[in-house]
TrEMBL record:
Species assigned in the record: Priestia filamentosa
Name of the featured protein: Hydrolase
Swiss-Prot/TrEMBL keywords: Hydrolase
Gene Ontology molecular function terms on file: hydrolase activity
Length: 276
């Protein structure tokens, strides 16, 4: 473990050739580690209600996946799931952590599954929150278009068609949660065009989600937690993952949408403790 990163705090380090922002909370050598991986268009901000609960029982590491949050919006980094998974395990290596509970939300769940498939020795158990699943690689026409000049402006326009308020209202069941603090927190990384340029590259780099055949080979204990009102990744996807991941437990939360770490952090903590 590096000497300068021996306590809780916020850090920026070069990992796998890219500048990465991450947070460490409640660090103790004798506590198990939970590694938090956020979803698409999100950041460590999405775990702000969950981290204060988890850090009492666990060392918590949360990472901003490039190009999101405060991590680098690189145009040379390969934004494949496999490379992002390698970046995450590189962060564990940096801290000298040999094994962790890996928790992934939405797209972060697919990255967690890639870690479990390629480097299972790093994972004691998986906790998947409304994980993405069964998505194919982007259509070849979209991939080809991503090379066009100013394509990033089309991405910016497409993502902004509902506005940040509308996008947040789509991922929560309880609309009262959407306040100015939440809007500002999720909007902050998108105030310059650099992230949209990196997203154009991500369209080219992202491979498809793991197949049923690959999922059935994962033998790590896995807890699947789903919001019953999820409009982004329907509960049917969670049930299908439960069928394919043989060593899995499935929990659904009523009156909860896609952004389950914001809406129902205490339920995540409670079910996680029971599962572990």
């Amino acid at each position: 473990m590096q000497n300068v990163a021996f306590s809780s705090g916020h850090y920026i380090d070069f990992i796998n050739g890219v500048k990465v922002f991450y947070e460490v909370h409640g660090y103790r050598k004798n506590k198990p580690t939970v590694l938090l991986i956020h979803g698409f268009l999100s950041s460590t901000f999405s775990f702000r209600r969950l981290i204060p609960i988890l850090k009492e029982d666990f060392t918590v590491i949360a990472v901003d996946l490039p190009p999101f949050g405060q991590s680098e919006k690189s145009l040379s980094f390969k934004y494949s799931y496999q490379n992002l998974a390698n970046l995450v395990t590189g962060l564990l290596d940096l801290w000298g952590i040999s094994k962790a509970i890996v928790m992934g939300h939405s797209m972060g769940g697919q990255i967690a599954l890639n870690i479990a498939k390629e480097k299972p020795n790093y994972v004691s158990s998986l906790v998947l929150l409304c994980s993405s699943g069964y998505l194919s690689r982007a259509h070849y026409g979209l991939v080809a278009s991503s090379y066009l000049p100013y394509f990033h402006l089309w991405i910016k326009r497409w993502l902004g068609r509902k506005g940040i308020q509308g996008n947040l209202e789509n991922v929560v069941y309880n609309l009262d949660l959407v306040n100015q603090e939440m809007v500002d927190g999720y909007m902050k990384p998108f105030r310059t065009d650099h992230i949209f340029m990196a997203l154009a590259k991500m369209i080219r780099d992202r491979e498809g989600d793991l197949s049923s055949e690959a999922l059935k080979k994962i033998d790590i204990p896995t807890l699947l937690i789903w919001g019953e009102e999820d409009k982004v990744v329907p509960i049917s996807v969670g049930k299908r993952l439960h069928g394919d991941i043989l060593n899995s437990t499935f929990i659904s939360l009523n009156k909860t949408g896609h952004l389950v770490p914001e809406e129902n952090p205490k339920a995540i903590w409670r079910h996680m403790l029971q599962f572990i």
